[in-house]
Design goal:
With 138 residues, this protein is mostly helical. It has three helices and no strands.
Length: 138
């Protein structure tokens, strides 16, 4: 009986040992996969960082090649444009211009009526002079 109990105990220990071995293998494989993924991400980030550094270096070189006095010239040009825009026509000026045009049109319409009346009067005078000879009888 002792051998049977000892045999059963050995089998239980063996099952527990196998279970622990399976858990260890699973955990170590998971850790290995995680480490591989992290290593792949690190190398990808290193490559991206290197490419970004190269781009920044190219930009710095391009900025360094620019003439130094261009910044001042550009600033002067921007200042002149801003000053010109301050004195340019705005919406309020366009409204005033429309009002003046409307007043001018109204005045022209009034003059047109007066010219039409004067033309009619001159036509009557012209007809009178043509028909009556324009001479006074003694």
């Amino acid at each position: 009986m002792e051998w049977e109990a000892l045999s059963a105990l050995v089998q239980v220990v063996q099952i527990l040992g196998n279970a622990l071995l399976v858990l260890y293998v699973w955990a170590s494989n998971r850790r290995r996969v995680t480490v591989e993924r992290i290593s792949a991400m690190e190398s990808d980030m290193d490559e991206r960082f290197h490419k970004t550094e190269l781009r920044l270096t190219h930009i710095d070189d391009a900025v360094a090649r620019l003439p130094k006095d261009n910044c001042g010239v550009c600033q002067q040009r921007v200042t002149r444009l801003e000053e010109a825009l301050k004195h340019s026509i705005g919406p309020a000026d366009i409204v005033r211009l429309h009002e003046r045009i409307d007043r001018s049109v109204a005045e022209i319409q009034g003059l047109k009526g007066q010219v039409t009346a004067v033309a009619g009067t001159l036509g009557v005078i012209h007809d009178y002079l043509l028909n009556h000879g324009g001479k006074h009888a003694p």
